[in-house]
């Protein structure tokens, strides 16, 4: 079903098609340079709920519902959804998806979750588990900061390397291939391997994740025998401004110059000068909302033809950090292509 | 690649083969009625480490290593491993798998994780992502109790409905099908849907999970047009003594009598009379260790020919419980068959 090219690197013989996607973000993300591209900018950080956790759940659910609405499907049409988030025990996905009653595969890849979800949902679609599958993820500034760092009311100082957890969600719906590639397809993937270079600072995640992104990208270039200029964009998740520089240096050392095509969702999401987000954005929702708000539309319109989407995750927990553990990074990747079949 | 039978229910056209498996448990599990069946009973609850979290990581790693050793493979032979656990941000899997450097797909299905992992790892193997894939999970009494309920030193009273989180781990290695079913294969699966009947008591998880197990089993019976007596055993994860009774009642109401073949890992793991475990065992490691210690050997020797393994998970977190949320249950299922090709 897939062409296995090297360890964890594959391409689809018949690629599944992305038939719908949607993005929801908070007000701060809506005020950023890409604010106009998201389907929904929600000014109420509580999304009408009593708690931040409920807010994130509602955001995720609304995003899936919107993706369904956009392609005229119902939740009962989906054979499964791959869902995950940053909260303890992934409750954004649990309570977000509960009312939709879709067979649920819970995943955890920290901020790499959107790429992991796309990878698995595309695999399940290509393998024939029903006609439609989906992937969704979310993050919320207030749930993540309270959980991983300090409660908001503590008012702690954020160092220059810190990233701003995005309030956002992205959802993608895939269709089983029918033999004719058409529209935007998931054409390949790379399952990430953990890389841990010993970073212990939970406020310096870009440095913790960049080596994993480099490992995944170089594995994919080698496995597929492609070079950076094959792609219109090589998109990473949320390395931010500091991690992005590190990534370009790390892949350059292995003979690949990605600097002309590299784009990082965390570095793009906020205005560096006016939005006080230090090293940029982070969180599962950062790359998910940028994928669904900016990159998938660019592929759909033909402005881009072929991109790599390599979301990046820092596999940490407050317990591990308190025990002095370092932060392993991981980066899963999917290749996305516009297969527009036009009449001759 | 799969025959899609109904929503989320499928069978493999060419089933991937289970070529190795291993189990590790703690001393209390080793003292139970199935103690002799596990590969390793570790008397040191700390597994030689400084913290409970490190102990669980080491247990999970050792179990994967043992499964690799038993079939003569190395970590570098695996194209991916599906791994998850109960700890916040799945750090048992993160730090457990870190030294092994295997492409990692993080999953979260609470105590249903072993079935979710087997479902995905078998799908990836059948789809051709390399020759070997794997699934692993773990739980540890001390990490789970501290996280979900009270620190051990608090010495809280446990109600009769409470279950005892198993210290244990199970790992399974699968091989891509070569067209000839042989040995023990994963022949089908059912992706679980969340079911929430409003249980809010974190000490009554059997009741929270039984409706999800019933939903999954009935969906599988209907989708495959089979009946309970098709199977030598219908194994649930960790419903425990109370949840097991509920499950039998719930499926009976839908016309299926599973009482003769139903076995619950949580009800089996400990001696009810002497081990003070109240309603039985729970935790990701409960069904994982019983699968790898008892059921897979029974299939391998031919004592059983065909079983359903439906692990069950309670998708909760302390944060959600404190906010008054109910506990949705989920149950993923895999069908396992002995395909022994004997000369005529």
TrEMBL record, chains A, B:
It holds the Pfam family SpoVAD. InterPro entries: SpoVAD, SpoVAD_sf, Thiolase-like. SUPFAM superfamilies: Thiolase-like. It comes from the Bacteria. GO terms for molecular function: acyltransferase activity. This is Stage V sporulation protein AD. It comes from Ruminococcus callidus ATCC 27760.
């Amino acid at each position: 079903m897939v062409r296995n090219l090297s360890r964890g690197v594959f391409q689809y013989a018949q690629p599944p098609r992305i038939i719908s996607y949607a993005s929801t973000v908070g007000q701060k993300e809506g005020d950023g340079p890409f604010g106009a591209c998201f389907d929904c900018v929600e000014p109420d950080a509580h999304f009408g709920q009593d708690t931040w956790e409920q807010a994130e759940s509602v955001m995720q659910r609304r995003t899936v519902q919107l993706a369904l609405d956009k392609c005229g499907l119902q939740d009962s049409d989906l054979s499964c959804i791959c869902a995950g988030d940053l909260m303890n025990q992934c409750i954004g996905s649990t309570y977000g998806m509960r009312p939709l009653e879709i067979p649920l595969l819970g995943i955890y890849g920290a901020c790499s979750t959107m790429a992991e979800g796309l990878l698995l949902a595309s695999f399940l679609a290509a393998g024939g588990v029903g006609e439609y599958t989906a992937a969704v993820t979310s993050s919320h500034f207030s749930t993540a900061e309270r959980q991983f760092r300090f409660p908001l009311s503590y008012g702690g100082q954020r160092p220059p390397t810190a990233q701003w957890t995005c309030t956002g969600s992205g959802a993608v719906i895939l269709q089983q291939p029918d033999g004719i590639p058409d529209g935007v397809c998931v054409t390949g993937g790379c399952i990430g391997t953990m890389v841990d270079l010993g970073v212990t600072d939970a406020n310096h995640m870009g440095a913790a994740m960049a080596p994993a992104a480099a490992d995944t990208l170089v594995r994919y270039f080698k496995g597929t025998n492609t070079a950076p200029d094959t792609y219109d964009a090589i998109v990473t998740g949320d390395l931010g401004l500091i991690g992005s520089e590190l990534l370009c240096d790390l892949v350059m050392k292995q003979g690949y110059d990605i600097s002309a095509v590299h784009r990082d969702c965390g570095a793009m999401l906020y205005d560096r000068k006016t939005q006080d987000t230090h090293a940029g954005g982070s969180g599962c929702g950062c790359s998910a909302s940028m994928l669904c708000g900016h990159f998938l539309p660019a592929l759909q319109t033909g402005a881009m033809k072929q991109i790599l989407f390599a979301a990046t995750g820092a596999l940490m927990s407050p317990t591990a950090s308190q025990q002095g553990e370092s932060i392993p990074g991981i980066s899963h990747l999917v290749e996305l292509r516009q297969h527009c079949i036009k009449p001759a």
